[in-house]
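To the structural biology subgroup,

Please find below the input and predicted structure for Transmembrane protein, which we are adding to the shared reference set this quarter. The sequence is reproduced verbatim from the submission form. If anyone notices a discrepancy with their own records, reply to this email rather than editing the shared folder directly, so we keep one authoritative version.
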Amino acid sequence: MWLPIGKFILRSYAVLWLTAVGGILGANLGSCVAMLFLVTDMKSVDVQPWLHAGWYGGTILFFLGALTGRLSFINGASTKGQSEETDEVPARSNTLSKARLSRAASSTEGSFLGHVAGGALAGGILGGIFGASLLVFWFSFACSPLSTANIASSVEFVPHSPVGGKLARTQVQTQHPIALELCLTPAVVGSVCAAIAGGILYYKYRPEDPTENSAA
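Predicted structure (tokenized):
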């Protein structure tokens, strides 16, 4: 039951994330074309309509591509190969999974603090990755016609030339405090929740103390 729901949530998030990426790329492309060929005085007021037009075009294009499956995170060929390989050796995979679960449940190594620290580290990393993905929505919204003047002015497309490189690349930068909150909040929440989960799993699956059995 939960597997189809999880797949649907991940699929929906991937479609929305790719749509936001399309908005950023389209806005960047529209502003670059305007500054290079269409606008001579380089005023932001004159570039803004082309930026918004590029945002509309990129958002629609990437949304349709993600919705139809032409844009995705997972390669269909590799996924098919993995599924076929899994079908060929289901018994072996189940045996290995049971053996790993048995070793994890009966392992005497580690401690409560080790489980908590490991959970906090893993949760913080995963939360940070999720927070970084949320920045894509922020930048896309800032480039859209729906953003306010304060938000739009906090985002800049800065040309950056790498050391030894010949072609300049454009980097998106922002100084708005909500961008930092989007990164840090999921990392902190994920770290705390994973630390609590690690402690609960330790007490649930910890090995029995031999001294207690001998005393009994």
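Summary notes: Residues 74-86, 104-109 have pLDDT under 50 and may be disordered. The beta strands are 155-160, 169-174.

Regards,
Lab coordination
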